Amino acid sequence: MLIIPAIDLRKGKCVRLLQGRKDAATVYDNDPIQIAESFEKDGAQWIHVVDLDGAFGEGRLSRDIALRIIRSLSVPVQFGGGLREIGDVDELINAGANRVVIGTVAAESPQILEKLVTVFGDRIVVAIDARDDEVKTRGWEAHGKILAVDLAARVAQAGVSRIIYTDVSRDGMLSGPNIEQTRRIALESGLKVTASGGISSLEDIGRLRAAADGTRIDSVIVGKSLYEGRFTLREALAVMH
Fold this sequence. Notes:
8-stranded parallel barrel, 11 helices
């Protein structure tokens, strides 16, 4: 299972939110580029970058920093947050992002999603963020009246090959991932799945890896547990190897 460290950008700083709430942010570092480079040095094979300002519709300061991160690294980067137009995706792809993560558009504008998949293929990844199985959009501040499993089926029909599934209630809480729901979505959709939200220990990663048997769950995004020193990226990579 691939370990993907996360860098969440808010007002140009490296932060983590509790359950996606913008009023519950903890700043961990003022130099996200240095953090990204340290993840690369420690052996990261992918890095996950999120522009929270973009997700909340609050300008592009963090996107500009994300572009600098992408250009400074040799490892592939997947980027998400505030990508609502085809031009946004094109900008990130041209800057060197290996994958772009689409959330709100996938739930609200399936026609745009289909066009993105036609143009960019498997470089389009869909983020399915849910609380009590109901999809959350627009920086997790709105709900789209669609169930996560139904959205997964819909994006699969649109040609998407990978989703990132996050249980919003566990994100940033260090309470363990929602393994049961992650597995259910993987089995019912048949898609490749990157798990996200709640990882607190190496044991959590081990449990997720065991539960992934028979599914296409092949990776996990790790954020707060790294920043809080629960374990290091090198330790996580060693466990996976």
